[in-house]
Design a protein that fits this description.
188 residues; mainly alpha; 8 helices; 0% strand
Amino acid sequence: MSPITHFLTSWLVANIGDLEVKEQAAITLAGVTPDLDGVGIVAEYLTRESDRPLEWYSNYHHVLGHNLVFGLLAAGAALAFSKRRWKTSALCFVSFHIHLLCDLAGSRGPDGFQWPIKYLFPLSSTFQLSWNGQWELNAWPNFALTAAALLLTLQLAFKRGRSPLAIFSRSADQAVVKALRDRFRKSV
């Protein structure tokens, strides 16, 4: 799934219960950061014509950040640094696993390659999660899921007075919430 979908679904998980912005940020990041293992695409692209191309994306995407150890590290960081430690940690773990579930459902490449997830890496490279019904990254279910997550996010921002922008900028968040309320208050 796309980073936008991961971001929005993670933000929705972060809105379970009454949490502070920093705790919501941690939960949202736990659902997005697994894809940091995809930054190897830059090195792979830049070295593709060389004598010794770096296949960092091909070899490590859905490996380094898409495993139980990474999920436990994200949850452990939240446990160590959050005000509501156990709740934030548990929701980080859930958010991380929703990321994996979304990737299992809708990340097949245009060439038909399914990204298996080495869930027990680095403890074991043989156990892999995959689903033979995985749809392509650009398939309609991914667009539908993103649209649904966006609509729910906007509804939460309207009702609760906080959007995902609160993670980055309080003033931008307030501007979005105000715009939503000014536009839709009369219709509700």
